[in-house]
Design goal:
Layout: H1 4-13, H2 16-21, E1 27-29, E2 32-35, E3 47-50, E4 55-58, E5 64-65, H3 67-75, H4 79-89, H5 107-122, H6 124-132, H7 137-142, E6 146-148, H8 151-160, H9 165-170, E7 174-177, E8 180-183, E9 188-194, E10 200-207, E11 215-217, H10 233-243, E12 245-249, H11 252-260, E13 266-268, H12 279-283, E14 288-294, H13 297-312, E15 317-322, H14 328-333, H15 337-345, E16 348-349, H16 350-360, H17 367-381, H18 389-400, H19 404-414, H20 426-437, H21 441-445, H22 458-466, H23 474-477, H24 487-510, H25 517-535
Parallel strand pairs: 12-13, 12-14, 14-15
Antiparallel strand pairs: 1-2, 2-3, 3-4, 4-5, 6-9, 7-8, 9-10, 10-11, 15-16
Length: about 550
């Protein structure tokens, strides 16, 4: 963790005008500077930077903050990532609270990347393979494609250049076995992999000499976790934020060729399926997500798992399956750019794709198989936000050619513990959404609201107060059918919630025989006082 005093020293060291001018063209305007806001489209500058106060503010869209906040928003980085980027930009050394865990020195991985790139230039077999796949020289340079030679050559390079072998081992470049040190990447074309903030963290490698594993990745290290990285994201993020769309493919070559064809919002997973660990990356900039996978069994299964993940987290977008053995790289090589444009413009939405995939596993001409398909799609439906139940019950009924009420019957029989549409309270959900939209509201409402006051959405509220950034709340936050409350409207809805709660509580106490006479009298008096204050429009602290 970065030391707090170190962060404060960094803030004192940097200048907001210097920082922002590295991203925007600022013009002097009196005591301040102005620019067109990068966070919303405008032709007249309303983005003001104050060197005196070391803050910025846009009078058009209302964004504002300090240097760290600007880098976070502009580069779509987390707070620690933005702090580290600013420190790097200003040649400032940060200190960390955990002195036992020093920051990893990445010099060796940067040097080995340069070495791999030089080897590629000198290796005709590697160059011929890459060119045979239709990759241009400009793409080779852009993606820093390299070549890892024999193990002995890599070890010799590290030693002759006095690079730290312990660091090389920690970063997954080499390892040790019964016969001593060996390189992890041997006779492979290399694809450097960067973190979200643009730091080199590992490699992917493709064999061109017949090794048993066609592709390998760096092993898990302190800085490399393939389940939290996307290949090409460092080169794609600006386009992703601008277009509000991200294309996820299966391989390095797909990404490179798509970028070459102008689809420079394409990325790839690193030999693994999409997981919940990828969700924080995918939420940056709130893009529409297009999953573009091969039509073989592995691709279809991966697309299905991705669709379930996206459906459960309310992502917009859909799935594209490349049939007949073609993939995006092949289509770009064959010049089918317009066809790719058409394909990417019409993905199959995640929920219908998931339903179709489940149903496709069964022969619907067999009544028993149709029943199994109905059971499985009902199981999937019940994992979704209840708001989708009605719409997709109709869709399932049409696909299975059955009556829609069978979906509802099956749902209530098999999954009694699931929330049904009749048990959704819009008012409660809107209160939760209002807090998610403005997290500062949470501290204000905790004095007056307890989770027990929520009749239908107690679980969601408890998640909210435990971790307001929990991804399970995104279904509420992104639900456009729920109204965005102002502070005044939120107070009014809280008054309604409290009124209902204390009225119900009063009835419970009146008929509860476990209290003594004095206990019941005192509690009734307190509840009635609360109800009276609520009727006068005053929010009251929870006191029961």
């Amino acid at each position: 963790m970065i030391n707090k005093d170190s962060i404060e020293n960094l803030k004192n060291h940097i200048d907001i005008v210097d920082t922002i001018s590295q991203f925007l063209q600022l013009k002097k305007s009196g005591a301040n500077f102005k620019a067109c806001c990068p966070f919303h489209g405008e032709s007249t500058p309303s983005f003001v930077v104050s060197p005196a106060k070391q803050i910025y503010h846009c009078f058009g869209c209302g964004v504002g903050g300090d240097s760290i906040k600007f880098v976070m928003e502009y580069e779509k980085l987390s707070y620690p990532e933005a702090v580290e980027k600013l420190a790097s930009m200003n040649n400032f050394s940060l200190t960390y609270d955990d002195t036992k865990e020093k920051k990893q020195d990445t010099k060796v991985i940067q040097e080995i990347n340069k070495y791999y790139q030089k080897n590629f230039v000198d290796n005709n077999v590697a160059k011929e393979y890459i060119k045979s796949r239709g990759i241009f020289e400009s793409s080779i340079e852009k993606f820093e494609i390299g070549y890892a030679p024999t193990s002995a050559e890599t070890i010799n390079f590290l030693k002759s250049n006095f690079l730290n072998l312990a660091d090389a081992k920690e970063l997954g470049i080499i390892d040790s076995g019964a016969n001593g040190l060996y390189a992890r990447f041997i006779e492979r074309i290399t694809f450097p992999i960067y973190s979200l903030n643009g730091s080199l963290v590992g490699f992917g490698g493709r064999t061109i000499t017949g090794h048993s594993a066609k592709y390998i990745n760096s092993p898990q290290t302190k800085i490399f976790n393939k389940s939290r990285l996307l290949y090409g994201y460092n080169l794609s993020k600006d386009k992703i934020y601008k277009r509000k769309e991200i294309i996820i493919t299966e391989g390095y070559l797909d990404v490179i060729m798509l970028h070459q064809a102008g689809f420079d919002n394409a990325v790839a997973t690193l030999g693994t399926a999409l997981t919940k660990d990828h969700l924080p990356i995918l939420k940056r900039g709130e893009p529409k997500v297009i999953v573009a996978y091969d039509g073989d069994n592995a691709g279809l299964n991966a697309a299905f798992k991705a669709s379930q993940l996206m459906s459960h987290n309310d992502f917009e977008g859909g799935v594209i399956i490349f049939e007949r053995g073609f993939d995006p790289a092949d289509m770009v090589k064959d010049g089918k750019i317009e066809e790719l444009n058409r394909i990417f413009s019409k993905p199959k939405p995640f929920i219908p794709f998931s339903i179709d995939h489940i149903i496709s596993q069964y022969d619907l001409n067999d009544p028993q198989n149709k029943q199994k398909a109905l059971h499985d799609v009902n199981e999937f439906l019940n994992t979704l936000n209840p708001i989708y139940h009605d719409e997709y019950s109709r869709y399932i009924a049409q696909k299975l050619n059955i009556r829609e009420n069978l979906i509802k019957v099956q749902k209530s029989i098999n999954r009694n513990n699931n929330v049904e549409l009749s048990k959704v309270d819009i008012g409660e959900l809107c209160i939760i959404k209002a807090i998610l939209n403005d997290k500062q509201r949470l501290s204000r409402v905790l004095d007056v609201i307890d989770s027990s006051m929520f009749e239908y959405h107690k679980n969601e509220f408890e998640i909210l107060i435990t971790d307001i950034n929990d991804v399970r709340l995104n279904a509420i936050l992104l639900n456009e059918k729920l109204e965005d409350y102002s502070d005044e409207r939120l107070n009014a809805e809280i008054l309604i919630l409290l009124g209902k709660f204390y009225s119900n509580k009063l009835n419970e106490v009146l008929y509860d025989k476990t209290y003594t006479f004095n206990e019941k009298s005192s509690l009734i008096r307190k509840i009635k006082d609360n109800i009276a204050m609520l009727k006068s429009g005053k929010l009251i602290s929870y006191n029961l």
